[in-house]
Specification:
Nucleoside_phosphorylase_d, 11 strands, globular, MTAP
């Protein structure tokens, strides 16, 4: 199904299902299979919005089983040109506190065996991964956080682990010592696949807790599940405000390199 005019795509998980009022449900098929769920189409501030539950509406897809290729291909098929992708993360650094946001600019891939390219031959493409996140969308997210006075970090590296298990304390300490900021299970290959489809993508990390490697830090209190749940629910309410503020200010600009990522990349 092709929708006229450009569309802003939003990935989300639990707590985001009511992002759009009275949405139209669209079942999109791709050559890479079906996406995680039906896509919800709605409007806000004159912009068409497409929402897709990354893990499925019933949260039945663990991180390593998400159909990342189908999700990105489905967004591309309906005309999405920009993707806002909030994700829950754990903090790897004491100065990055639960409840704060991190506007990601880098990732480190620690996953394994995930399908992570649309180019498996006979066509081969080598896109640059130096700056994986859209500079324009990142600035739009930063500006939204500033306007709404939301505690945030302008840059940050997410180490992406395979899941569904969490890190051991030894692994987490190692990641922290590399000066990476947050840990997550879904940013890869999502961001790179968007780039292969020449779609602008921004990852907004929602910090819910401190990761295992920081538990013995005397400055940090052990996290309880109640605290994680409270922060998670609060973050969901706050990120919706950020998303709506971003949507009001997103333009179909072509002055970033995301929408020409395949130029000189295909052999």
């Amino acid at each position: 199904m092709k929708i006229k005019n450009s569309v802003i795509g939003v990935f989300g998980g639990s707590g985001f299902y009511d992002l759009l009022e009275n949405p139209k449900y669209v079942d999109v098929k791709t050559k890479w299979g079906s996406p995680s769920d039906k896509i919800r189409i709605g409007e806000y501030a004159g912009q068409k919005i497409a929402f897709l539950a990354r893990h499925g509406q019933k949260h039945h897809l663990p991180p390593h089983k998400i159909p990342y290729l189908a999700n990105i291909a489905a967004f591309k098929k309906i005309g999405v040109k920009q993707i806002i992708a909030p994700c829950a993360v754990g903090s790897l650094q004491p100065n990055i506190k639960p409840g704060e946001f991190v506007i990601l600019d880098q990732f480190v891939d620690r996953t394994n065996c995930r399908p992570d390219t649309f180019y498996n031959g006979p066509i081969t493409a080598h896109i640059t991964g130096a700056e994986p996140y859209c500079s324009n969308l990142r600035q739009t997210a930063i500006d939204a956080c500033k306007k709404l006075r939301i505690a945030h970090h302008k840059t940050g590296t997410a180490v992406v682990i395979q899941g569904p298990r969490f890190s051991t304390k030894a692994e987490s300490i190692y990641y922290s010592k590399q000066n990476w900021e947050v840990i997550n299970m879904t940013q890869y290959p999502e961001v790179i696949l968007a780039r292969e489809m020449e779609i602008c993508y921004t990852g907004i990390a929602l910090v819910t807790d401190y990761d295992a490697g920081l538990i013995n830090n005397p400055k940090i209190k052990p996290v309880t599940m109640d605290e994680v749940t409270n922060v998670f629910n609060s973050n969901n309410k706050t990120i919706k405000k950020v998303i709506f503020e971003m949507i009001k200010n997103i333009s179909d600009s072509k002055d970033c390199d995301c929408q020409s990522a395949l130029k000189n990349a295909i052999l």
